[in-house]
Design goal:
Length: 344
């Protein structure tokens, strides 16, 4: 008996073949997707490993600088100057499959924004600090929609503990809560320079002009400058403190020895300093010691980069402590206790 070409048996065989082909196709697609996913996972794990390695390179640089600052302070009895190893420019250290770049800044050579307000000091001293801040803005030729005096007042009101503006046109308290996007004034110290952006008057244009010309020392409001580490190429701050011209400030810095002054009295005994000491209120605001430093680290491992900014404090016992860290980005945070190492 002959089986018809259209018999049920042949139809079932054809359907089985199609089913097998579909199953094989599905398996191939699934296998390709699994392979692709695994490839992504392997790459992700590799990126995490490289980032973690770059992180530890950066942390190693931080520990190295802590030890460097501590040893320098012990060797030179607390005197800090630009001839010491920490001040070397363009620091770069090759490591396995990577590179560590670092820059150290003395935070006693810049204007600490937190110093504009300090509790329990005479009003005349606060007034002098505000005048220095205003002159500094003028020397930098900062262009703003409001006056330099108003910028200083708004910063002062942001730092002071009350919600009342110090001047008739100042911003504080209700001024911020009544804005289109309301928020509260801090009434406390800044933790990072970028916090200026939320203070009225310090818009993008002003912030751009002020880049790297100011600093913030977390938890510190002292108004003190290390004459040994003041930058000769940026005389505007010293001009503001002494209320002098650029040429007069250049003469003062020209009298500075290559290895700096060993005592602050040595500075005041120079011919150029004697000319301004009797007419300046600034003689109590200078030192040859520094207690706060900022380390900017870029660590590379293969193609991965890790940026770390650390604020390091040198205490009275020459121990170094990390009091602030910023991992990339622009938001600074307090150093985690879990990350802190014993004082070095």
């Amino acid at each position: 008996m002959r089986v018809s070409s259209h018999s049920p048996i042949r139809r079932q065989r054809g359907l089985a073949l199609v089913t097998v082909l579909l199953v094989i196709s599905l398996c191939v697609v699934l296998a390709a997707e699994v392979t692709k996913t695994q490839s992504y996972q392997v790459k992700r794990v590799q990126n995490l490993f490289e980032r973690q390695q770059a992180y530890w390179y950066a942390m190693g640089a931080e520990h190295f600088v802590k030890a460097l600052i501590r040893d320098t302070a012990e060797k030179d009895k607390g005197v800090i100057n630009l001839s010491q190893p920490w001040a070397m420019e363009g620091m770069s250290f090759p490591v396995d499959n990577g590179l560590i770049e670092g820059e150290i800044q003395d935070l006693r050579s810049c204007f600490n924004l937190n110093s504009l307000f300090e509790p329990n000091i005479e009003p005349d001293k606060l007034k002098f600090r505000k005048e220095v801040f205003v002159r500094f803005l003028e020397n930098l030729e900062v262009e703003s929609e409001i006056s330099h005096e108003d910028l200083a007042s708004n910063l002062y009101d942001w730092l002071d503990p009350d919600d009342y503006p110090s001047d008739a046109v100042g911003y504080d308290g209700d001024m911020y809560t009544s804005m289109q996007f309301p928020y509260l004034s801090a009434n406390s110290q800044l933790a990072h320079e970028n916090e200026l952006r939320v203070i009225y008057g310090f818009d993008v244009a002003v912030m751009t002009q002020l880049q790297q010309r100011f600093c913030v020392v977390p938890g510190d409001s002292s108004f003190l400058f290390n004459i040994n580490t003041m930058d000769t190429e940026q005389p505007e701050l010293l001009m503001a403190i002494f209320n002098l011209t650029e040429n007069e400030v250049s003469d003062i810095l020209a009298d500075r020895p290559e290895e700096g002054f060993e005592k602050i009295s040595d500075f005041w005994n120079t011919a150029s300093a004697k000319k301004v000491k009797t007419v300046s209120e600034a003689d109590n605001y200078f030192t040859v010691e520094s207690k706060f430093f900022k380390l900017i680290t870029n660590a590379y491992y293969n193609d991965m980069k890790f940026a770390l900014t650390s604020v390091i404090q040198l205490n009275d016992k020459n121990h170094t402590l990390v009091i602030g860290r910023r991992f990339g980005g622009n938001v600074e945070r307090e150093a985690d206790t879990a990350d802190k190492q014993p004082a070095g």
